[in-house]
Amino acid sequence: xxxxxxxxxxxxxGVRADVAREVAALQARGIRPGLAVVLVGDDPASAVYVxxxxxxxxxxxxxxxxVRLPAATTEADLLAQIDRLNADPAIDGILVQMPLPRHIxxxxxxxxxxxxxxxxxxxxxxxxxxxxGEDDGFAPCTPAGVRELLVRSGVETRGADCVIVGxxxxxxxxxxxxxxxxxxxxxxxxTVCHSRTADLAxxxxxxxxxxxxxxxxxxxxxxMIKPGAVVIDVGISxxxxxxxxxxxxxxxxxxxxxxxxxxxxxxxxxxxxxxMTIAMLLVNxxxxxxxxxxxx
Length: 296
Ligand code: NAP
Hints:
It contains ten helices and eleven strands. β5 (161-165), α7 (172-180) and β6 form a beta-alpha-beta unit. The protein has a six-stranded parallel β-sheet with strand order 1-11-8-7-5-6. The chain has two domains: 30-114, Rossmann fold, CATH 3.40.50; 141-275, NAD(P)-binding Rossmann-like Domain (Rossmann fold). The radius of gyration is 19 Å and the shape is globular. The model has no long low-confidence stretch (mean pLDDT 97). The chain is α/β, with parallel strands linked by helices. Bound molecules: NADP nicotinamide-adenine-dinucleotide phosphate. Residues 142, 165-168, 170-172, 193-197, 200, 213-216, 234-237, 273-274, 277 line the site of NADP nicotinamide-adenine-dinucleotide phosphate. NADP nicotinamide-adenine-dinucleotide phosphate (NAP) binds next to α10.
């Protein structure tokens, strides 16, 4: 029997409805969570992401600001903009859309963020808190979204053999840190694979839960998956498809057709992990607002 699909869009709607309720409760106390998204340059894909983040923020009843800066913006100017947002009492969360133009160092920008407003969870303070298992930081939105998908789909992570393909700071590493914690939706035994892993398939075939974030379209096939496994496909790639209206389609890192024959549960692309990333950005922003209110 083919694997069931995990409907990330439906689960994300549930998360966003929870967020909207929390926002309403905060507003009743005179607090309106605010998110600023900063975009430097005019990369069309980034512009689409920024627009959808802004729309989702407003739909949840939050205050949304989109800061658009020209591609020629200097690093010093961007840092000055971050300083202004750090000091702005209407802003609880700041997200700087990546990638930045080449003349701006992403690390310098991330380190300039007030960690209490770093709702993307990339500041070293938040990376450290995640590893320490302290819950007053922020986990990056995509791995946090994957964990939420697993929890809301009733997947048991405790004691599970979990294999992650990819070790980026955005997905693979924080995913490993989340799943190895002694916490709800965690307590897994985690293996992290990367481009230097010898015999990748030997690892992936052992996984009760396989999470793929390699940026290689359809490279994990059914033959690399353990029968009955749960497969989470984080990858998003655009591949040419002459029959498609726009000449391309969006695919993940997993070959869905062959993987479905082997797995028990699997996320589709699009409609799996993607919608959860935005939902978790809203969750983190509300959390930031609540903490600020509690600290006042
Ligand atoms: P990344 O920074 O390029 O990292 C890719 C990782 O995969 C690296 O650690 C790399 O290993 C590893 N890798 C590459 N080829 C491999 C291979 N053949 N075998 C084993 N490991 C391999 O990418 P990322 O930012 O983590 O993103 C990964 C994918 O997720 C991309 O398709 C991206 O578009 C997507 N993504 C989706 C969302 C979402 O919201 N759904 C969010 C973020 C990213 P090395 O470290 O050895 O190079």
